[in-house]
Design brief:
The protein has 19 helices and 18 strands. The protein is α/β, with parallel strands linked by helices and 480 residues long. The chain folds into two domains: 7-251 and 464-476, Rossmann fold (3-Layer(aba) Sandwich); 263-457, Glycogen Phosphorylase B (Rossmann fold, 3-Layer(aba) Sandwich). The protein has a nine-stranded mixed sheet, with helices on both faces. The chain has a six-stranded parallel sheet with strand order 15-14-13-16-17-18, sandwiched between helices. Helix 1 crosses helix 19, helix 4 (112-125) crosses helix 6 (146-155) and helix 12 crosses helix 17 (428-444). The longest helix is centred in the last third of the chain and has 17 residues, at 428-444. The relative contact order is 0.10.
Length: 480
């Protein structure tokens, strides 16, 4: 009996590392594909994404132009070029349309709905050029929510064998659009309106949940939370489709995030066995942010978008109390203007205690993860979170609230073996009490703190187990 051919998986994403990642989705999509390509030879895992101006100049010379076609989006006839690039064992396809993707940013435009409707249709148009007919198309978040919708409404007659997986990275962003653009922008008929119509508007995520064969989200706890009160209004739809929902925790790329080999650390690399380099990283970080060199003062960091659901409101309530403690506070991030001003003002008035960089800078973030002692993530909601796992990898101890993926990945060291500190109640007092507990351990029980650091560094946050879960999920859809 001949061996079964590889199962073909096409990941449709609006961003992906190493080319572009504005958040966790891009990191997850790239790392998942790389892990499956390396560890599961029964899968042919490929990725399709827009060709953005941000990385076009750097990577286009390495790409192969496969051809061009036209995409019909309502009354529009649109150019669609297809490029191919093989990197780290993964085949990437990039959709070229300069009108939609040659812009300063990936998102944030009034025509985002139209841009990603075009991309979702281009996923199917490109199959004629790539000759890669997937058994499963795996799409992510609202930007590619139209992929399973279009398969049901436009392409089922042609690609009736294709199955779909839809992953929810964040329920808060659902692709809600005004109803009058149903035909003109999304090219959906009146008969299809019920698929996407919800609470008096178009809701693309709702349509994807209904149309996809499998729905996943990025942690087991978040899969439960979005059915109860964390679904941002989509809870009834999630519950109706719970039979096809699963929560698979994200991993991180442990080759990239490795304090023993990280080039960002220069000569200050370190390991579980030898933490000397971490002390040097802390001193370098204090120098970079003009904080006093104080090796035994606990350095607390935040690397986050400055929005309320990340728990930033709690931090503003307790920061004055924190400043009165023997700690230093360092923040990197951008977000709501009021929060940016608040932290900048605190830094101005407390230069020996508080340092702030209102920016998004992955290299600086990497230096912070390596040099800080503690990472604060007191989120009100957190689908999975990657920062807490990266921090552990570098021996920076997370303080997290027990929600979503934070509760699935961080275990309270006060309850036995753990890799961080966890609190339950969403209020500033609970956060402050947990910080005090961490600072006491750091200041008064150095040997125990170092044991905690080593424990955190040895937790397995690789993609190995999560990739196996996705492999199993794909095979459940294999009907060959």
């Amino acid at each position: 009996m001949p061996a079964k051919k590889k199962m073909k998986i096409l990941n449709a994403v609006s961003e992906v590392v190493p080319f572009l990642a504005t958040g966790g989705m891009g990191q997850v999509a790239g790392a998942l594909a790389a892990s499956l390509a390396e560890n599961d030879k029964s899968l042919d895992m490929r990725i399709i994404a827009p060709l953005y101006a941000e990385f076009r100049d750097k990577y286009e010379p390495q790409m192969k132009f496969l051809g061009a076609t036209e995409v019909q989006l309502a009354w529009r006839t649109l150019y669609c070029g297809v490029f191919e690039l093989v990197q780290d064992g993964v085949t990437f396809y990039f959709i070229d349309n300069r009108r939609y993707f040659d812009r300063e940013n990936a998102y944030g435009y009034v025509d985002d709905g139209e841009r990603f409707a075009f991309f979702s249709k281009a996923v199917f148009a490109s199959i004629e050029i790539t000759k890669f007919v997937p058994h499963v198309i795996h799409s992510h978040d609202w930007q590619t929510a139209l992929v399973p919708i279009y398969l049901k409404t436009h392409y089922a007659w042609k690609y009736y064998d294709i199955r779909t997986v839809f992953t929810i990275h964040n329920m808060e962003y659902q692709g809600q659009m005004p109803g009058h653009i149903l035909h003109d922008v999304f090219d959906l008929s009146d008969e299809d309106a019920s698929i996407v119509w919800y609470h008096n508007c178009i809701n693309l995520m709702k349509g994807a949940i209904i149309c996809a064969d499998k729905v996943t989200t990025v942690s087991p706890s978040y899969a439960e939370e979005i059915q109860e009160n964390g679904g941002y209004g989509l809870e009834p739809i999630i519950r109706e489709n719970a039979y096809k929902l699963s929560g698979i925790i994200n991993g991180i790329d442990t080759k990239t995030y490795n304090p023993e080999t990280d080039k960002l650390l220069g000569k200050n690399t370190y390991s579980v066995e030898n933490l000397k380099g971490k002390k040097a990283c802390k001193k370098k970080l204090q120098t970079l942010f003009n904080l006093p060199h104080s090796p035994r003062t606990m350095l607390i960091c935040i690397v986050s978008r400055l929005v309320s659901h990340k728990g930033i409101d709690l931090i503003t309530l307790m920061l004055d109390d924190l400043i009165r403690m023997d700690v230093q506070f360092l923040l990197l991030g951008t977000g709501e203007h009021a929060y940016e001003l608040f932290f900048e003002e605190k830094a101005i008035h407390n230069p020996d205690k508080v340092a702030v960089s209102i920016a998004y800078n992955p290299d600086i973030a990497g230096m912070i993860f390596a040099g800080a002692d503690v990472l604060l993530m007191p989120s009100r909601s957190e689908p999975c979170g990657l920062a807490q796992m990266i921090a552990c990898r570098y021996g920076t101890i997370p303080i997290v609230r027990n929600t979503g993926g934070l509760g699935d990945t961080i275990y309270d060291c006060r309850l036995g073996t753990g890799n961080g500190f966890v609190f339950d109640d969403y209020n500033a007092r609970a956060l402050m009490e947990t910080v005090i507990s961490a600072q006491d351990l750091y200041a008064n029980h150095e040997a125990d703190w170092l044991n905690l650091v080593r424990e955190a560094m040895q937790f397995d946050f690789s993609w190995n187990q999560s990739a196996k879960a996705y492999s199993k999920l794909y095979r459940e859809l294999d009907h060959r």
